[in-house]
Amino acid sequence: METNPKRMTKSLKAFSAWCKENRNNRIRKIVDMVNRKLRGYFNYYAIQGNSIKINKFYSIATGILYKWLNRRSQKKSFNFEEFNKKMKYYGLIKPRILKSLYKQMSIEDYNFV
Q1: How far apart are CA 83 and CA 66, in angstroms?
Q2: C-alpha closest to that of 66 among 37, 34, 38, 107
Q3: Which end of the chain, N or C, is more open, meaning fewer C-beta atoms within 10 Å of its C-beta?
Q4: How far apart are CA 53 and CA 102, in angstroms?
Q5: Full-model pTM
Q6: Distance between CA 62 and CA 59 in Å, rounded?
Q7: Rounded distance, CA 84 to CA 62, Å?
Q8: pLDDT tens digits, residue range 44-77?
Q9: Domain limits of the chain?
Q10: What's the rounded Cα separation, in Å, for the pair 55 and 73?
């Protein structure tokens, strides 16, 4: 099961609009909110079999964040290597599969009374 491309595009457009509006906040506040947004997306879409789309969403979203953080002033704030160091310092979360689509039932799940 994969993420619908239209939903992914819609989520990325909304993320881009949010980054544009909030690029002038402090980086700590921006990263905290981005973590909330990513965690919500991962909680909904991060199931087994969707890791390729999750990683694609993450890479595009970090590219969008990099773009808008570099537009905070007239000169380029940092390159992508420095951006990755800053995001690691501030604790930007990484994508991971959170749940299985099909939960395997164990014998303890049955009530034999």
Answers
A1: 7
A2: 34
A3: C
A4: 19
A5: 0.82
A6: 5
A7: 9
A8: 888 888 889 999 999 999 999 999 999 988 888 8
A9: 11-98
A10: 29
